[in-house]
Structures are given as structure tokens and as C-alpha cells.
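quick one
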Amino acid sequence: MFNLVIFGAPGSGKGTQSEKLIDRYGLTHISTGDVLRKEIAAGSELGKIADSYISKGQLIPDDLMVDILASEFDRLRPESKGFIFDGFPRTIPQAEALKKMLEERGEEVHSVIGLEVADEELMERLIKRGADSGRSDDNPETIGKRLKVYHSTTSPLRDYYTAEGTYRAIQGSGRVDEIFSRITEAIESQAVLN
Ligand code: AMP
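structure w/ adenosine monophosphate:
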């Protein structure tokens, strides 16, 4: 199994690049944001809880997120040759929980691809995405909060994964296919995929 974390601020291109990585390497995608949005759309109890945080630009509590992630992983694992974790982990405790969860299953995170994009560009991209997709958390006020949370709580994971030896910084500005080439080069220098 080859397990990859795609990491970066909201709007850094994680979802777009994940789709291309799935096509290239046949990996299984777990986007915690997508899982939560589905729960919200279904009107489930979990969806109601998730919505109360997402609409304020806040993170869902770690314990809940870790349970969701583990159950998605176990559900999808039988047909998977490896995973892309998109939007998870977002905190140091989540990264520690992911490590433990994978270790208990004889697995590990092989590569962490960090998409690095300046805040001004993120803001522009997210406002545009909000207009195109209608995502309710892509409005200027909530975007500002999400970027703050990213810098205070999520960006320390860069140092965490650098210490683990798995972090690869990728310049996340430019054309989608150029960025994708940078990513595949980084991955293929780290691991042999088959
Ligand atoms: P995303 O689609 O990854 O940008 O996620 C949208 C929103 O879902 C985030 O702003 C958070 O409120 C919530 N969310 C997604 N993944 C996580 C996570 N790993 N931990 C906490 N909250 C999350």
C-alpha cells in the first residue's frame, strides 16, 4: 500500500490535484471535507454537528474526526492499493492519531505533499470557488477565519512531517498540470509505485 497525505491551506488545490493523482496511481481518495458535506446534505446527526463548525470556519473536534477517518479507512481498505488523505490531518493530535491508526493496521504515511500558495492567491481562488460551486463556507468572512485556523493550527504539521522525513514542499501556484508534474516528481523520488 502507498499512502499519501495531500496537505495545504484551503484553496491550495488539494481536491484538484487529488483527482489527478487518483487517475495516475489508482489510489483511494478520502476527503474529510467531502465526507462531512455528504452528512450535512443527508441531514444526519453527524451532519448537524459538522455544519455547526463548518459554517463558522472552525475545525470539527479531533476525536470525532479521527473516528470518521478510521471508519472510512476500514470501509474502503479491502479494495484499495493505497490512500490519498485530503484535508486530514489538520492538527498535530490528528497526525498522531493517523500514525497510530495506520501502525495498528501495519501501514504508514509514505509521503506528505504540501501545496504552498500565498494567502492573497488563496483568498482569490476561494472567493471564485464560492461563486462557482456555491459552497457556503467560501464567503470572505468564513474564508478569513479558515485561513487563520490554518496558520495557527494546521501549518505546524509542516514541521511535524519534516521531522518524520516525509514532507515535500510543492510550489502550488501556476498551471494545474505544471503543479501536478512537480507532485509526481516528488512522489516518484520518494517511492516506487506499482
Ligand atoms: P475542506 O473541504 O477540507 O476544506 O473542509 C471543509 C471544512 O470541514 C473545514 O473548514 C472544517 O470545518 C471541516 N473539516 C474537514 N476536515 C477536517 C479535519 N480533518 N479536522 C477538522 N475539521 C475538518
